[in-house]
Write a structure and sequence with these properties.
It is a single chain. Helices cover 46% and strands 21% of the residues. Helix 2 packs across helix 3 and helix 2 packs across helix 4. 34% of the residues are buried. By secondary structure, the chain is α/β, with parallel strands linked by helices. The strands form 2 sheets. Strands 1, 2, 3, 4, 5 and 6 form a 6-stranded mixed beta sheet that branches. It binds zinc ion (ZN). Zinc ion (ZN) binds next to loops.
């Protein structure tokens, strides 16, 4: 048993102040219990780090450790309490676990890897033999650790984007570092206050150093950008423009479909996706149908053509030629007699300077778009959780590029 104790002491990276007192193999319960005893004389105050006297030992506690073969393994110990002249009696943080944690650092590090690989908290929790709450706690701590470690570096190009959250029309505001391809933070709702809140997670210096911000045409976001990032130029990117034009096409289609169906004409029935999807993503059968209805002189086809034409805007090299293109496009869009399309065309004209600024900075919300599938999956995988806080944790856990792992003793 002596060699086994030494083996565990080494594995846990314990110093001289701890001794493995017993390794209890409970074969019937498929459990291993490792009992640790504090044998050091002095301790350090967890508040100020001062070396101070030992007051007593706290109640016995347990920490889940990495399994030994297929056996659940736990550490059991009474933690010493320090008596600091300034802070009084405090329970020390053991070398094998974080403050208040019920898991060892090794277990947390392993759990973080499993959670990241599994992409579903439920699947990971079941693999690890953890409850949903315990898995969430490990993620909370990991994100907290990652945010604490995150360095304050200049971030030149940022994106502010809204994503739907929950079943209804709840939204969150997401701040991304475009060059670093990471989510910096999220806030509930898509208001000016929300946008200002996420921007304020950057330091004052960082905000002053932001050169350009990719965002939608919402006045709330424009105001927040003007207030918080005074030196940044606003860029309305192609993803947002495409979204607005796509919604206009869909409104035209819905109205026209209703009118056609009242005359028993089913041409537009079930065609929503044909108009919204990229042609390349359609099946051969869908493509044949689409080609046929596109050439039918329908209003929807006209709206769609106007939307498609706008894609050429982004391919210009200089803003001067893009502006020329816009004038021609606008002449078409504003006179098409399709109210939803006219509305978007006018909106684009109002925001033209911030559309043209794309040619100076060439930033888009592609980073944020790239996280869409992950964020959607988190939303659906998390049907049971309603709280924004957990949702934020998960987004930062998977999309924040944070240094999440605890530092391990002896490694
Ligand atoms: Zn102290």
């Amino acid at each position: 048993m002596d060699t086994l104790s030494t083996h565990y002491a080494r594995l846990l990276g314990l110093d001289d102040s701890w001794r493995v007192d017993a390794v209890d193999l409970r074969l019937d319960e498929r459990r291993v219990e490792i009992r640790l005893v504090h044998v050091g004389s002095g301790v350090f105050c967890p508040e100020c780090g001062q070396s101070c006297g030992l007051a007593d030992h706290a109640e016995e506690r347990r920490w889940r450790h990495l399994d030994t073969m297929q056996f659940t393994t736990e550490l059991v110990a009474r933690l010493p309490r320090s008596r600091c002249p300034e802070h009084g009696v405090k329970t020390i943080v053991p070398p094998w676990a974080g403050k208040h944690s019920r898991f060892t650092l090794f277990f947390e590090a392993f759990a973080i890897e499993v959670l990241q690989a599994a992409r579903s908290v439920k699947a990971a929790a079941s693999l690890l033999g953890l409850s949903w709450d315990a898995a969430q706690t490990i993620m909370d701590r990991a994100v907290e650790r990652g945010l604490e470690r995150r360095e304050v570096t200049p971030i030149r190009h940022i994106g502010i984007d809204e994503k739907s959250f929950g079943r209804g029309h709840d939204y969150i505001t997401v701040l991304t570092d475009i060059d670093g391809s990471r989510v910096l933070d999220v806030a509930p709702e898509r208001t000016q206050a929300a946008a200002e809140a996420v921007l304020q997670t950057l330091t004052v210096e960082q905000r002053q150093e932001v050169v350009a911000v990719a965002a939608d045409m919402l006045p709330a976001y424009a105001n927040a950008v003007a207030n918080q990032t005074p030196n940044a130029k606003l860029v309305h990117d192609k993803f947002h423009v495409a979204k607005h034009l796509g919604e206009a096409v869909d409104q035209v289609r819905r109205a026209e479909n209703k009118a056609l169906q009242s005359e028993d004409d089913d041409r537009l029935k079930g065609t929503r996706q044909l108009w919204l999807f990229n042609n390349a993503n359609l099946s051969p059968a869908q493509r044949r149908r689409f080609t046929a209805i596109r050439q039918n002189g329908l209003k929807t086809a006209r709206a769609w053509a106007i939307k498609e034409e706008f894609r050429w805007f982004w391919r210009h090299v200089y803003s001067t030629s893009a502006e020329q293109f816009f004038k021609r496009w606008y002449a078409w869009g504003a006179r098409c007699r399709l109210r939803p399309v006219i509305k978007v065309a006018k909106m684009l004209k109002r925001h033209l300077p911030n559309l043209l600024s794309y040619f100076l900075y060439r930033i888009t919300n592609a980073t944020s778009e790239g996280f869409n599938s992950v964020i959607q999956a988190l939303k659906y995988a998390a049907r049971g959780f309603r709280s924004f806080r957990n949702y934020r944790t998960r987004i930062l856990f998977f999309c924040g590029k944070l240094d999440l792992r605890p530092r391990l003793p002896c490694h």
